[in-house]
Amino acid sequence: MSSTSPTIGVLALQGDVREHVAALQSGGARAVTVRRAGELEAVDGLVLPGGESTTIDRLLRVFELREALRARIAEGLPVYGSCAGMILLAERVLDGAVGQETLGGIDMTVRRNAFGRQVDSWEEDLRLPGITDDGPGVDAVFIRAPWVEEAGPDVQVLARLSAGPAAGRIVAVRQGALLATSFHPEITGDDRVHRHFVAMVRQRG
Ligand code: GLN
User: Which CATH number goes with the domain that contains 127?
Assistant: First the structure.
């Protein structure tokens, strides 16, 4: 892999794929879409987009990608999941659909659609260590988002909400090469979270 522009895939089965491709390119990666196992083999890192985790879970099986992806995660592939992607990286899900499974990798329990029907979306300025140290907070947009209900000892908590009905809830985590946020930096035009992920991919390479 090139040390300057790693190739990072965006799982392109469902969800806001184009936004992640644009944010990755802006963040210094060569971004490609991934729908097949052969495409997965060619990437140095992968983004699991926001969308609907139950649909992505089902399509991972239909496209016969689920086991290949689980194997690459186990080998240490850097993966960033936003919103539905965070759910897919969780070992455990509360309020999942019947039969819903995840890929796992991060020792955490997430609550799906956690903000409830009254608060489908939420926005907050968030500080993220290593990402907002030298600048303003990230405009974190939550859309029918999960939160992290419980995180294991090896999970690094990057951010908690500071205000509103979900104050104190964990919304950004990292464990090893896996990064997950409840929110959608890809829709804000701020590429710092993606730039940080690109740096994680470079470090591993
Ligand atoms: N509620 C969705 C799910 O369960 C996630 C929403 C999102 O990605 N914006 O997967």
Answer: 3.40.50.880
